């Protein structure tokens, strides 16, 4: 970690674990990037981030179903954030590769995009509270392991914006749950659905890394996934079930069954709720 410390939230603001972890990323790892050896894989990650920011521009569509002006105002500011992030990533990509190629790898589009939310509260939960949390976790990992302090600083500034989007997603999810507390299990089902997509993404990435004889990176990717998914699962359980996490052997199983049934019904049989 760099000696520079960044305060992300105003003094007195309620602190959440994820928000505090930015100052001390929680990942157990001795991994350090080595450049230029790791250029191509680092650029690959940056291009995924860039692709994510470009899909973030779809927030323009979400404005059409924002429930009120405040939410629409937030989305407009988020679009500006995502455009700024896309430009920052594009500049970094050009530093680490010789060509001007900004072609987006299709892996995210194919595996993750179908798990995006359709309704307002699904969108806030899946795309913001959960999806952006995955991105945030990867950013924390990079901040922890990258050698270049300037690049860490850029990532910190982007991570700060991402946490603002995550917080908005969390607040909107909580509001939706206040109105319909029973939807917690449905959202849990959506989480499990996205988790499956993440698992497929993990398998594809580790397969590619092993094919390129980068067992070390494949091992690190798995390690990161396991640690991040555990932390994210705790976060999601707290968000959905208010400090009463599901018991691994009892409630989790019945909640999974319930959530999957509801998910399949709502997603594939019933087009609107
Ligand atoms: Fe972003
Ligand atoms: Fe974002």
Structure at a glance:
This protein has 273 residues and is mainly alpha-helical. The protein has helices at 17-21, 39-56, 59-62, 69-96, 107-111, 120-145, 149-179, 183-211, 215-241, 251-269.
Description:
The chain is 70% helix and 0% strand. The chain is mainly alpha-helical. The protein has one domain: Ferritin, core subunit, four-helix bundle (Ferritin, Up-down Bundle). Helix 6 runs antiparallel to helix 7 (149-179) and helix 8 crosses helix 10. It is built from ten helices and no strands. The relative contact order is 0.12. The termini are far apart. The radius of gyration is 19 Å and the shape is globular. It has helices at 17-21, 39-56, 59-62, 69-96, 107-111, 120-145, 149-179, 183-211, 215-241, 251-269. It binds fe (ii) ion (2 copies). The site of one fe (ii) ion (FE2) has 6 residues, from helix 2 and helix 4.
Tally of strands: 0
Helix content class: over 70%
The biggest beta sheet is recorded as:
none
The CATH class name reads: Mainly Alpha
- Tell me the strand percentage band: under 5%
Return the CATH topology: Ferritin
Rg result: 19 Å
| Chemical compounds bound to the protein | fe (ii) ion
Distance between termini? 47 Å
Helix-strand category: mainly alpha
Oligomeric state of this protein: single chain
Low-pLDDT segments, ≥5 res: 1-15
Q: List SSEs in N-to-C order.
A: HHHHHHHHHH
Count of individual helical segments: 10
| Second-tier CATH architecture | Up-down Bundle
The CATH homology group name: Ferritin, core subunit, four-helix bundle
State mean pLDDT (0 to 100 scale).
81
The geometry reads as globular
Number of domains: 1
